[in-house]
Amino acid sequence: MSTATRKFDWPNLEPRATLDGSPIEIAGQMHALVYYGRGDYRVVPDRPIVGTAHDLIGRVRVVHRCGTDVKIYQSGRPDQAEESLLEELAALIGCSHTGDSRRFLGYVRLLETGKATAGESPGQAPGQSPRLGGDELYLAVAEAVEGMDAAELRQLWSQLLLHWGRIFGHETVVELVFVGSRVRELRQGIGYLAGDTLSAEQLDYRVGQRFCLQSRIAHYQPTPPSVKGARGVQLLGGNITDLAMNQAGAFAQFVRIRPQVIQSGSVLPVPDNIDDISAALVEPLACLLDCFQKTTHELGQDANGSVLKKGVMPGGVTLIVGSGSMAMMAAKLALMDDAALDVGGARQVLIAVRSDSKRDLVNKVMNDPRAVCVVAKNDAALVDLLTSFQPQQLDPYGRPFRGFDDVILCAGGSDTLATTHRLIAPTGGRIMAFAGTRGPCQIESGVWHYGNAAVMGTSGCVRPELHVCRLATARNRGIF
User: Fold this and answer.
1) CA of 216: how far to CAs of 14, 76, 220, 267, 269, in Å?
2) Which has more pLDDT, 471 or 400?
C-alpha cells in the first residue's frame, strides 16, 4: 500500500480481528452491486464478506428490485444512504466531521480523480481552491488525495471499492450459511421487541434455514398504560438502523445479518410451503397491508360513536393506479374476503395502467372478473376515464355510482395524487398513498373538510412476524 493511501484507516477484516466490538470468525469475498451515488452502480467482484461471533451470514436465494431502489438510482438518497456513507468515509479518514451529503457526488469525483470541480466544496467560489471550502470532511479528503499520482489514485479507489459504497436490496430470502458462536447472547430485544428478552428458541438459528429480512429497524413509542396486550408504534424518522440504507443489503451473493436485525425480530423464518419468490414479497406486502390497516371507513354510529372498519369500503369500488407487483397485490387485498386480514370486501376494483402491454400483464395475473384493467396513458386521460367510469354493479343499496370509495396509489406523481384527491370528494373516500410523489403536491383541503375524505400513507411494516404468518395463510388459501 502506498504512503498516500495509508492516510485512510482501512478495516482489518481477517479472522480473529475485531469488528464492531466482536471477533471476526469467518471472512471471504463475493460479487456485489455497489452504489456510489446517484446514477452510479458498480459490480465489485471481490467485495469482502465477514461474520463476527454475533452475526449471521445468509446466502441470497432471491432478491427483488424495489421501486425505492430505482428512485435512489435516479435521484439519490442524501438523507439516509449518502449520509451514512459520509459517516463511514469520515471514520476511514479519521475526521470528526461527517460532511454535507447533498454534495456526495463531489466526494466521489474527488476520491476517484484527485480533483475537485468548482463549487463542489460548500462555500467554494468558481476558481477557488477546494481546500478553502467550508465542509471540513471535504477538506480532509482533499488534503489526503493532494499530490497522489494516477497509480496511487487507482490504488485508493480499489480500496474504496472494497470498503466503501452501499449495497442495496431488501426484498430478499436468504439461506443461512454461518451462525456466529455468540449469537445466542443477543437476548435483549430492541425496536419492535424493545423490553422483551429473546428466548433460546428465537435465537436457535441453524445453517440451511431460510429467512426473509425486515429491512427497517426503528425505535418504537410505548403504548399508554391503558392499552393492554399491544406493542408500541413505530417512530418514523427514529430509525435504529436500516438494512441496505445503513448496512449492506442483498444485491450481492451474501448478506451479513448484524445484531440489530437479530435483536429486533427482523430475521423471519420462511414456512416450508412458501416458495422463495413469494416469500421475498413479504416485506413490500407487509408495508402495503400496513397502509390498509391504518385506513378506516365509517360504517355507522352506535352508543359509543363511530363504527369504523379498517381497509377498503365493504361493497365499494376501489381504484388502483399502477401496474407493478404492489398494484396487483393491492387489488388482491381489496377483493379479499378473509377473516384473519379483514381489510378487503370491495365489490369491484378498477386498475389504471399506462400501456396495452401492462394491461395484458395485469389481466393475466389477476384473472378475476371483479378486477377491470384500463389504459390511461397520461393524467388527462386518467381524468376522462375516471369521470366516465361505471361499475359493473350498483352498490349494496342500489344507488348510482358517484365516485370511488378508495384510491390506492402504487404509481404516479404529484399530479396523479391531486387528480385522484378531487375524485373522492363525492364519496367521503380514502386515498392510500403507498407510492410517494417525490415532489411538491397541491391538493384542496376542502375535500377533507366538506367531503369527510382522507389521505393515508405508510412507511414500512410494523408487525413483521405477523405479516409472514398472514402471507402463509393467504398462500394456503390460494389467494396469492
Assistant:
1) 29, 18, 12, 11, 17
2) 400
- The SS3 assignment for 319 reads strand
Q: Beta strands of 417-462 (E only): which ranges?
A: 430-433, 454-457
How far is residue 210's CA from residue 269's CA, in Å, rounded to a whole number? 6
Q: What is the DSSP string of 329-398?
A: HHHHHHH---TTT-----SEEEEEESSHHHHHHHHHHH--TTEEEEE--SHHHHHHHHHH---SS--TT-
Whole-angstrom distance, CA of residue 153 vs CA of residue 158: 8
**One-letter amino acid identity for 199?**
S
Instruction: Count how many Cα atoms sit within 13 Å of the Cα of residue 381 in the half-sphere of its side chain.
Output: 10
Question: pLDDT confidence of 123, banded at 50, 70, 90?
Answer: very low
> Under CATH, domain 282-476 is a member of which superfamily?
NAD(P)-binding Rossmann-like Domain (3.40.50.720)
Nearest-angstrom CA–CA distance, 377 and 418? 17
**Residues 255/210, Cβ–Cβ less than 8 Å:** no
Q: Which amino acid is at 174?
A: V
pTM to 2 decimal places: 0.86
**Residues 300/341, Cβ–Cβ less than 8 Å:** no
Residue position matching grid coordinates 411494516: 461
What is the assigned CATH class of domain 1-280? alpha beta
What does the pLDDT average to over 232-255? Answer: 88
- Name the nearest CA neighbour of 30 among 47, 12, 13: 47
The full set of domain ranges for the chain reads: 1-280, 282-476
- Which 3 state secondary structure label does DSSP give 247? coil
